[in-house]
Design goal:
By secondary structure, this protein is α+β, with helices and mostly antiparallel strands. The chain is built from 2 helices and 8 strands; from the N terminus they run ββββββαβαβ. Helix content is about 15%, strand content about 25%.
Length: about 140
Amino acid sequence: MRHRLAFSVLVLALVATACSGDTSVFELGVGDCFNDQEDLTQAEVSSVETVDCSEPHDNEIYYEYSMTDAVFPGNDPALQAASLRCLDQFDAFVGIDYLDSALDLFPITPTTESWAEGDRVVYCALYALDLSRLTGSMRGSGR
């Protein structure tokens, strides 16, 4: 799977505390657009800077689902399973096969800590492979 260099080993994870002025990761939903954190090496994020999708932005949430595992499978297994599920939903949202797209994807998964607090939601986000900013929703864009 193609990955933005900063995300090649990075697992964006959910934690409970939100920073002021940003949107808590627990309040995200399909169609939300947001910008990258300044520090892309930060492994856990609690909030993101959401913006209207008509404004230039780095990422868009295109799918979300809840994990059904009885126990937290671990960070790597959770990321692997989420990546496959996000990949399965990519072309239905964008309107083009993932391998032909100018976009890439990454999942945002629960952490061990957030799992213990009941967090089961996985978000699938997309961004431009060339790291340019997106303008408008990528839903049906064929990009």
